[in-house]
Design brief:
This protein has one domain (about 1-280): MetI-like (MetI-like fold), CATH 1.10.3720. Helices cover about 75% and strands about 0% of the residues. It is built from twelve helices and no strands. The chain is elongated and about 75 Å long. It is found in: Cell membrane.
Length: about 280
């Protein structure tokens, strides 16, 4: 673990990504403290509608006269909550399915994988839009739509890794010693493939945030006046290019957090993936 952390610390891009993520997380946690107008994120102030950035409203105001800076801080809470919960549910569904299907062979394993193939056959965003449209706009429905969309990726990853790991000597030794299939899967195989799951989860966070913002942009996310980043960009369209700050700052927030997770995920992949380490040694 120390070696992994040391190598990760030497990767400047990964550390930059981690710094971006920490800044966004801290901003979301401390939103009531950091916000300049914490009580006005969902109220009308007709006298200052669409005001450009100024000392009172650092990032300007929106069509309701609400402070965009404050709405971005509280919107970070919604965005991160949707992404974390959706990824957690997807992992809890996909990892056990992939683990069981990869360990066992036969009709049951084939049915589980064919089921995941059905979900993978439909483009992610199309499936997420269809589910969210059917259920209606809300945070819970967005989380459900994203979870249903993303779990097959973890199932496929864990299935392939389990198939490969099952041939290793330590797994065969555990089976020969009489360990139960549950013990072999949970205590021997799962820890061995955890690095791939961690990398996929980290990179998946960025994609989940982007998809959640897309649903919000299409009006399928949390309903107004919720300060969700995607919905804010959608609301700003009719005021472009006059009120450029209305769309620019929410878009920049999405860009920063997605880039942070992608940079960190790339660094973790280089450090944790043994196949990449062997390839680098060969060069």
């Amino acid at each position: 673990m120390r070696q992994v952390l040391r190598k990760l610390a030497e990767d400047r891009a990964s550390m930059f990504g981690l710094a971006l993520i920490l800044v966004v997380v801290l901003a979301a946690i401390l939103a009531p403290i950091l916000s300049t107008h914490p009580a006005d994120v969902a109220e009308f102030h007709t006298g200052i509608r669409l005001s450009p950035p100024n000392p009172d409203n650092w990032l300007g105001t929106d069509r309701m006269g609400s402070d965009i800076y404050s709405r971005l801080l509280f919107g970070a809470r919604i965005t991160l909550t949707i992404a974390v919960v959706a990824i957690l549910v997807a992992v809890l569904i996909g990892v056990p399915i992939g683990l069981v299907a990869g360990y066992y062979e036969g009709l049951g394993s084939d049915l589980l994988m064919r089921g995941s193939d059905v979900f993978l056959a439909v483009p992610q965003i199309v499936l997420a839009i269809a589910i969210a449209q059917t259920l209606g706009p809300s945070i819970e429905n967005v989380i459900l739509a994203l979870s249903v969309t993303y779990w097959p990726f973890w199932a496929r990853l864990v299935y392939a890794e389990t198939r490969s790991c099952k041939k290793e000597t330590f797994v065969e030794a555990a089976i020969a010693l009489g360990c139960s299939p549950f013990r072999v899967m949970v205590l021997h195989i799962l820890p061995s493939i955890s690095s791939s799951i961690i990398v996929r989860t980290t990179i998946g966070m960025g994609g989940t945030i982007l998809t959640a913002a897309t649903l919000g942009f299409l009006g399928l996310g949390p309903p107004p006046p919720t300060p969700e980043w995607g919905r804010t960009i959608a609301e700003s369209r009719e005021y472009l290019p006059m009120a450029w700050w209305y769309a620019a700052f929410p878009g920049l927030a999405i860009f920063i957090v997605v880039m942070g997770f992608n940079l960190l995920g790339d660094g973790l992949r280089d450090v944790l993936d043994p196949r990449l380490r062997r390839a680098s040694r060969g060069r």
